[in-house]
Amino acid sequence: MKKAYRYPGTRPFEKNESNLFFGRNEDILNLYQLIMNEQNILLYSKSGLGKSSLINAGIIPKLDNVQNFRYITVRFGNYSEANNIAPLNKVFSKIESLYSNIAENYLNKIIPNENSLWYRMKYVQAKDNVPTTTLFIFDQFEELFSYRDEEIFHFKKQFAFLLSSQLPNHFRNILDRKLALDNSFLTKEELRLLNQPLQIKVLFSIRADRMSLLNKISDFFPNILKIFYELKPLSIAQAREAVIEPAKQINTEFITPVFEYSPQAIDNVINSLIDAKTQTVESFQLQLVCRYAEKLIEDKNVQNLSGSKLSVDDKDLGDIKNILSVHYKSILAPLNETDYKLARVLIEENLIVSGNRVPLPDSVIYTKLKITEELLKYLENSFLLRAELNTVGGRSFEISHDTLIAPILEAYEIRKNEEEQLRQLKQKEEELRLAHEKAEKERIERERERKRQRKIIAIVSVAALISIGLALWGFYQKNQADKALVKAQEQTEIAKQKEEEATENYKKVIEGEVQKKKIIAINLIDLGQKDIAINYLLEAQKLDSTNMEIDSLIQVLRE
Fold first, then answer.
1. What is the radius of gyration, based on Cα positions, of the chain?
2. CB hemisphere CA count around 73 (13 angstroms)
3. Which residues of the chain have a pLDDT value below 70?
4. How buried is residue 163: exposed, middle or buried, by Cβ count under 10 Å (0-12/13-18/19+)?
């Protein structure tokens, strides 16, 4: 069996992780009591506070212990070409998975194989040995509204009727006609089952900022907002419990042994993530940091030959903001070079404006920014982006959480600085190239001048043999030519010195750039990002292939 981490990180808790789900006992009890006492409950909160985790690891395990009670969980998923099954059909499939042969049904005596939600649940009721309550759980209910209006209408109409527990009029009319012809065509038990009300409950879970979408079904669910439960961020006490308790759990199926946090480490985590105004902590951020801490323990355990109890110290965690930054970089790291650049431009330059996250329609992302559907899906599935239905029938994407804005902007600044340094390096390389070209042109010109001077000297020498007068004139010309030659030699020496200085400056620029990339790589190694560190070292190696220290670092990291 594959071993698991104690902290799920960015994904929600699952049902089998209820023993690791801490800090929500009061919420579990309150929501459970509402489910037991009410028919229709709406669970809502900001994104990232743990609604899915509360349902999966809190409510569902508790419902497993309730007699004569079942739950059916339904997740529609946002509509797409690959996910185009109507919401009602997804509910049908969930019900039909309870029993294989739905065709053998006393209801067929009235209307054979009717395609309705009520029909299916009446069949399930007939299969139950004792009256059983069925709870439908619709997690991420906002996804319903990404489907066509026609499909939304069919869902709300049939589900509202199911909750009413009434016998459909068309069933009643046909039944009355058939009973008038043969009052025994249904047995007494079948008549009892037909008139026995269905015991149906429903739990809708939705993001707080998408609750306005419920207006689209309020005509069939007028009381949908009557009974609700708001899941709030973790208090300081709840956050401490969520950090400390999973590390204490004893189970050989965990990747890490039992470990603990130092008081300073816990304070560092809470103080770094707490909202100063509300004094609360968001679950998403907390689980992300705790997952990072557990990976530190995983690394420590490799060297823990004595088997002593391990702990996470404040110095291990360092600056919590760096953890969020590493998380952002780790999501982008597996991408190829093209997708990596496109993703960063999308996220850093188009989804953040003036320090705030803003949504962007998928049509703009595909056409203007050249992002592929596959890449966008990857960013969404990694919880870096989230999508919502927009007003023009498409989807808009935004950064999943405000807490990611700071590390993303930090990464953006680093990228822009690196790009500026690269631009300056290329500019210096161009300046050196132009300087070399200029020096070469000057050398050629000086060579031409020397040839011209030599010709002048030859002419003067011949003239000296012809006549004394001309010899005197030649002597003068030779003297001038010598001076010009000396001057040309001096200019050649000056040009040579400039060329050597330019070459030396270029070497210093390259050495500086190599040193910067080496420092960045060492910092990334300290953060556990070896793959990204290797990329920086490889870039440094391209600049200076003779640097043995860089070669050694790369070889060590790859071993």
1. 38
2. 14
3. 1, 100-104, 389-392, 402, 460, 463-464, 467-474, 481, 488
4. middle
* SS3 sequence of 48-110: CCCHHHHHHHHHHHHHCCCCCEEEEEECCCCCCCCCCCCHHHHHHHHHHCCCCCCCCCHHHHC
SS3 336: coil
pLDDT of residue 159: 94
Burial code (b: 16+ CB inside 10 Å, e: under 16) for 8-18 equals bbbebbbeebb
| pTM for this prediction | 0.67
CA dist 465 and 474 (Å) reads: 10
Helices (H), 304-404: 314-317, 320-332, 337-344, 362-367, 373-381
Pick the CATH number of 38-230 from 3.40.50, 3.30.310, 1.20.58, 3.30.465: 3.40.50
**Quick one: CA torsion of 137, 142, 145, 146, rounded to 10 degrees?**
-110
Name the β-bridge partners of 357. Answer: 352
- What pLDDT score does 467 carry? 67
The encoded tokens of residue 88 equal: 């009602």
C-alpha–C-alpha distance, residues 195 and 200, integer Å = 15
Write the pLDDT tens digit of every residue in 505-529.
Answer: 777 777 888 888 788 888 778 777 7
The token duo for 54 is 């509360």
Q: Give the number of other Cβ atoms within 10 Å of residue 543's Cβ.
A: 16
Three-class secondary structure of residue 410 per DSSP: helix
How many beta carbons lie within 10 A of that of residue 287, not counting itself?
23
Longest dimension (CA), the chain: 153
Cβ atoms of 56 and 244 within 8 Å: the answer is no
Residue with the two structure tokens 């300046």: 431
Assigned token pair, 556: 């060590």
Q: Answer whether CATH 3.40.50.12280 is correct for domain 323-400.
A: no
CB atoms within 10 A of CB 353: 9
Q: Which residues contact 202 (CB under 8 A, 6 or more apart)?
A: 39, 40, 41, 135, 136, 137, 138, 159, 163
SS3 396: strand
Do 241 and 292 form a contact (C-beta atoms < 8 A)? Answer: no
Q: d(Cα 204, Cα 202) in Å, to the nearest integer?
A: 6
What secondary structure letter does DSSP report for 216?
A: G
**What is the CB neighbour count within 10 angstroms for residue 323?**
22
As given in the structure block, the two tokens for residue 555 are: 């070889």
Give me the helix-helix angle, 530-543 and 468-526, nearest 10°. Answer: 170
pLDDT at 101: 58
Tell me the β-bridge partners of 356.
353
Amino acid at 514: V
Q: Which of 480, 477, 481, 473 lies closest to 451 in space, CA to CA? A: 481
pLDDT of 104 reads: 64
Round to whole Å and give the CA distance between 354 and 347: 13
The predicted pLDDT at position 552 comes to 82
How far is the C-alpha of 181 from the C-alpha of 306, rounded, in Å? 85
**Residue 135, both tokens:** 């709870």
How far is it, in rounded angstroms, from Cα 153 to Cα 156?
A: 5
